[in-house]
Design brief:
Shape: globular
Distance between the termini: 88 Å
Number of helices: 12
Radius of gyration: 34 Å
Structural class: alpha+beta
Number of strands: 34
Largest sheet: 7 strands, mixed
């Protein structure tokens, strides 16, 4: 049960003054002047002010006691999580040299500071990203093919029979949102043009960028990759091993000394490429990250010369640039390809990228000196503290500094004084190795340190000077929008910084009230996933994400739909919905980062024999048209809006109790709770919707309810199976007969007209 604080006096200043003056009239009848100017009234107000301050301090005692009770039960409150992301640093107007920036560089999004986590070489380059999108057979008109046959004939070259036309498309948010390296490209990769800056002046001679290539030789190119974070599924197998993922390969043109393209037996271009050694610590197709590529010598940073106009972009050749100004600034090409058959969708890739975290660091903060007593505690000035970031050093007199480290539990610490082994028969003294002694226990949410008592961990020595270094964050305030990071005080002149995607993973610390609700569940599951209630309670406490709803389906696998829970032994499916989705607020989608955070939190807590599937919901679009009759005395507009609000709340996938643990008795059957959102495997029926509309005040009767799924015909019942949930695509409520569904859809079910694609490469001059 919740820890109820003891009742304390909660009177305020005005109440204290009024009560005292009322008593004064009874106990001191000779006092008759109670105006504000009377000295007696002034004294009463003064003591009422002091009493109110004392009561305020007394009212803080229950809150501290509740937090202490949780500490005694060893139920930790979840600490804040630091947001993370990617930034790209560009040398736009600085000197055209390679400058190395160390890690821990501060960048800012307004008043929110971030720290870079990786040093990098900032190359004085610009980049443009292209991919080859195949042209459909329907777009290859006979006139277009005849034109290319005549074009090849004018160069006295045979037109290939196995030609596959494509168009060069820039990977730019204004052109395409993302690209699937397998499905959307003709060669399974993207091409990154490494360009000299607009302000750079080329060298005189046959190689205009020789000086720039000499500066780039042997340096490290840090490439950022942001995958498309659409709704996906995450799966943890019973053995607990990571799933195999497609790998990215990075290549540069391998140009011979003469600069010409190698040809195959059919006299077609057969360019060769040099693979670069790629170093990365994350799966670039699952989460945003960076890859470090070591560039070869200046002689290998070239492109082919004297390429025939009809061979530009043919086969494995890089795409020819439409803009001639880009061609004059081209240094070399970098090709990124994918190995494996799995889909790999990329949203952004760019140069000079580095990961960041929303961290503020405090170095050598002085704490109270040690007094030599057991169980000493110290409180840091800033909280919540990031776990694992605290280090403490002490110094007594002129002795060498002593470093203290964090430990999970002081009970595992060794004694301050070595203890002899009583079982040993040797004459010499033998001490047991019971672990470290210079340790402390950290309450990250409160920012409190607790040291040992001498038997379990060393005490802070008498008179020791104590210094603490740590990091803290601003929690959910670190989740900033795309391009919000735009300043860095320590960057050299002419450098700019921006974040290509929004930051993620920031979450506020858990408060005491929320922690109290977890006491009973925590004492039951002990941070282990066994029952369905354990899965729900632990999933809701995943750090770094904001969860709107969680549903646990034991013995259920979504790939075996239409099966019911209980048909797949050994499998547990966790359906999770985020609290917010700016792009789709009415039906939040679980993206890749959201599911990865859940997997990282659940993986070490599950049983080794459990196969865990973490997925988001599958939304089924609905069109609803309602006709109602309004009762007398009610405004039509208000009743119509009330009906719309009730239906949207009734069909909402996330309800008000979706992110709260169930308050049912332990080990009881899990009942359907509509307040958590639309129940799974519950069909949407027009007759039930009619009854829901009739409950709205002001509705006298309901003429009819029309219901349809997507572009299908109207139906009385829309079934929901597996992880399907309803999403309202269109809702119409009118007084009288309902609008036809065709009018509500507005022609949305019609086929999208096809667009004719062109072949922009190679560029053919208008005159010869």
């Amino acid at each position: 049960m919740p820890i109820t604080p003891p009742p304390l006096d909660d009177r305020r200043f005005t109440q204290l003054v009024d009560s005292t003056l009322a008593r004064a009239r009874v106990h001191t009848p000779e006092w008759t002047n109670f105006n504000q100017s009377d000295p007696g009234v002034t004294l009463v107000q003064l003591f009422a002010f002091l009493t109110e301050n004392l009561l305020y301090r007394a009212n803080l005692v229950p809150q501290r006691n509740r937090a202490r009770f949780l500490q005694m039960l060893r139920v930790p409150l979840a600490s804040a999580s630091a947001a993370q992301g990617l930034v790209a640093i560009a040398n736009e107007r600085g000197e055209a040299t390679v400058q190395t920036l160390a890690a821990d560089l501060e960048v800012r999004a307004g008043a929110v500071p971030f720290r870079t986590q990786l040093g990098l070489d900032v190359l004085p380059l610009e980049s443009r990203v292209f991919f080859k999108r195949p042209v459909s057979a329907a777009s290859q008109s006979p006139e277009l093919m005849a034109y290319y046959r005549l074009l090849y004939a004018s160069y006295q070259m045979p037109f290939p029979d196995d030609v596959q036309l494509y168009e060069t498309v820039a990977l730019d948010p204004q052109v395409v949102d993302s690209v699937d390296l397998r499905a959307d490209t003709i060669d399974g990769g993207v091409w990154i043009a490494l360009l000299a800056r607009r302000t750079d002046v080329p060298d005189a001679g046959p190689d205009p960028w020789k000086t720039l290539r000499d500066r780039l030789a042997g340096r490290t190119l840090t490439l950022g990759v942001v995958p498309a974070l659409e709704a996906v599924s995450a799966r943890l197998t019973p053995v607990g091993q990571a799933q195999s993922a497609p790998m990215l390969r990075f290549e540069l043109p391998d140009v011979k000394a003469d600069g010409r393209v190698v040809r195959d037996a059919t006299d077609r271009p057969a360019p060769a490429y040099r693979a670069l050694d790629a170093r990365t610590e994350v799966d670039l197709l699952a989460v945003p990250g960076v890859v470090q590529l070591t560039l070869p010598g200046a002689a290998q940073l070239r492109v082919w010369q004297d390429v025939d106009p009809l061979e530009g972009g043919v086969g494995d050749m890089p795409p020819a640039l439409d803009d001639p100004t880009l061609g004059t600034r081209l240094v070399t090409w970098l090709r990124m390809r994918v190995d494996g058959a799995s889909p790999a969708r990329i949203r952004w890739t760019g140069l000079n990228a580095t990961p960041i975290r929303q961290i503020q660091r405090i170095a050598a903060e002085p704490l109270a000196d040690g007094d030599g007593t057991p169980d000493q505690g110290r409180r840091l000035s800033r909280a919540p503290v990031l776990p694992g970031s605290v280090s403490v050093s002490t110094r007594v007199g002129d002795d060498a500094p002593l470093t203290w480290s964090e430990i999970d539990d002081l009970a595992a610490a060794g004694p301050e004084v070595p203890v002899g082994n009583p079982r040993s028969t040797a004459r010499e003294f033998q001490a047991d190795d019971n672990g470290r002694t210079e340790v402390f226990e950290l309450d990250a949410e409160a920012g409190e340190l607790r040291f040992g008592d001498g038997l379990r961990g060393r005490r802070l020595p008498l008179g020791a000077r104590v210094l603490a270094s740590y990091g803290f964050c601003q929690g959910a305030a670190g989740n900033v929008a795309e391009a919000a990071i735009d300043s860095a005080p320590q960057l050299p002149s002419g450098f700019t910084v921006t974040n290509p995607v929004q930051t993620w993973g920031g979450a506020d610390a858990e408060d005491v009230e929320t922690g109290e609700k977890q006491v009973r569940r925590y004492l039951q599951h002990r941070d282990r996933l066994v029952s369905a209630d354990d899965f729900e309670a632990i999933t809701l406490r995943t750090p770094g994400v904001q969860i709107g709803r969680v549903e646990i389906l034991p013995a259920f696998h979504p790939d075996l739909v239409p099966n019911e829970p209980g048909a797949a032994p050994g499998v547990v499916t966790v359906m999770a919905i985020p609290r917010l989705d700016p792009a789709q607020p009415d039906a939040p989608r679980a993206d890749r980062l959201f599911l990865n955070a859940l997997c990282q939190h659940l993986d070490p807590r599950r049983l080794v024999t459990t196969e865990l599937v973490v997925r988001g919901p599958v939304y089924k679009g609905l069109w609803i048209s309602v006709g109602v009759e309004i009762a007398a005395g009610f405004a039509i507009a208000e009743v119509v809006e009330a009906v719309k609000a009730r239906l949207r709340a009734w069909l909402a996938p996330v309800g008000p109790n979706g992110a709260q643990p169930r308050e049912t008795a332990l080990f009881n059957a899990r009942a359907v709770d509509p307040s958590r959102g639309w129940p799974l495997r519950t069909s949407v029926a027009s007759r039930v919707m009619l009854a829901e509309v009739a409950r709205v005040p002001g509705v006298m009767s309901v003429a009819e309810v029309l219901l349809a799924e997507g572009s299908r015909a109207a139906a009385d019942v829309i079934p929901m199976t597996g992880l399907e949930l309803p999403r309202v695509l269109g809702l119409s409520v009118v007084a009288g007969e309902p609008l036809p569904l065709e009018s509500l859809r507005g022609g949305s079910g019609s086929a999208t007209p096809t667009t004719v694609s062109l072949l922009p490469v190679p560029v053919v001059p208008e005159t010869c």
